Amino acid sequence: MTVDPARTAPPPVPGPRLNPGPGPGPAATAAAFTVPVRPPGGRAAWAAWSIGVSAYFLAVIHRTSLGVAGLDAAERFSIGASALSTFSILQVLVYAAMQIPVGLLVDRYGPRKVLLLGVLLLSVGQLAFAFSSSFTPALASRAILGCGDAMTFISVLRIAARWFPAAKNPLVAQLTGLAGMGGNLVTTVVLAQALHSEGWTPTFTATALLGIGVFALVALLLREAPADAGQAGAAPVPAAPRPAVRAQIRDSWREPGTRLGLWVHFTTQFPGNAFGLLWGLPYLVEAQGMTRGQAGGLLTLLVFSNMAFGLFFGKLISRTARARIPVTLTVIAATAVSWAVALSWPGAHPPVWLLVVLILVMGSNGPASLVGLDYARAHNPPGRLGTASGIANMGGFIGTMITLFGIGVLLDALSPGGAAGYSADAYRWAFCWMYVPLAVGTVMILRLRRKVAAP
Asked: What is the pTM (predicted TM-score) of this model?
């Protein structure tokens, strides 16, 4: 039975735990940062988090930039819808594949260095995208961007774990997701208008150059852990040698809390993610007969709903960690029931009020997925938090890829006439595919929760 070490460990010796790292090699280099025994919180913690989250805010702007440029990209690269969807699927694939390597990097070299590398890759990828004039270079640039994007969220969570008390981490994680939604709004409102008025290359170049300011901010001002000041005289405590990479991954995976975190993230995130990333606009326009403006308004509602649920879940779980499973299962049930009503509604088109309810419910998916990362944090020691968070954070993006691909395959199978023949019935049956990963994930959550003790 596994419990949160922070709740069961004996009172720590006052002062910081230092990793002196006297020997050569990567392990010694990785050990050169300070890990506080008692995270202080306060203004300094919020300042450090704010600097770190600026990189995540920028990453979400880059990540979602293609969502408002789909028609422009199709025209610029002379591609069809299936090739256009490759951009989204590749970006999600790269993001998911990078989670464990990024977690290892964060554990070994610290979040500040990983954030700097992430911002650099984001800027390079977006700048290359700005000047790409054919499909292959543009696809490669989105892969680079996906690598940079993958390095931001876990790094910010690790900074929060060092600066804030454990009880505050669920709220800080939700606020981090909220900042990401702010980046999504910037894309929807500002970037879309800039593309219309300024054109492709100037807009994406300007977006890439934002990385210079964020890079300087992180490089010059970010402290990834509290300094020793005010704690002089405390005896340093040598850190244990870091395990090998394989052992780090193995030990993280063997912890039931990590696996439960992965399945929570998998099951709660993918419905809203797949809808907002690719299939939402086609479903609302082609299956429900909405204009692009009406569909865009509903997708904006998805962002605002995500923000509201993020604040609510963050405060709730910060007060009692026992709310994790009830929140998770409630969101899964609400999402499944909402989609069942919409897909089984008599006639071709469900009423608008039902679509609004469906989208509001899916706004809870992203915030609920962060409960999975909270499980990974609470049930792993500090030395492997990055690796465990990376494993858990893969879940939702794997679920998203499965859903994006499955819906696409079913749409093609149900529409012999191709994209021009996608009907409301084809979308209705294709979206039923979501119940497969939803069922698998729910079974795994119910199975694993028995192995994870309540903290």
From this structure: 0.74
Question: Tens digits of per-residue pLDDT, 354-367?
Answer: 999 999 999 999 99
Query: Rounded distance, CA 440 to CA 257, Å?
Result: 18
Looking at residue 452, what DSSP letter applies? B
45-59, 111-125, 201-215, 267-281: range with lowest mean pLDDT? 267-281
* Rg for the chain, CA atoms, rounded: 22
Yes or no: domain 244-455 corresponds to CATH 2.60.34.10:
no
Under the banding of pLDDT at 50, 70 and 90, the label for residue 202 is very high
Q: Look at residues 227, 25, 248, 218 and name the one whose alpha carbon lies nearest to residue 119.
A: 218
Locus of tokens 């009880």: 167
pLDDT at 113 over 60: yes
The structure tokens 């040698």 sit at 241
Please give the Cα distance from 301 to 355 (Å, whole number). 11
Q: Helix 256-274 and helix 324-343: axis angle, to 10°? A: 30
The lowest-confidence range among 38-52, 148-162, 435-449 is 38-52
How many CB atoms sit inside 10 A of residue 333's CB?
11
**Side chain identity, residue 361:** V
CATH superfamily for 41-227 is MFS general substrate transporter like domains (1.20.1250.20)
| CA distances in angstroms from 164 to 99, 157, 360, 416, 445, listed in the order given | 23, 10, 31, 55, 28
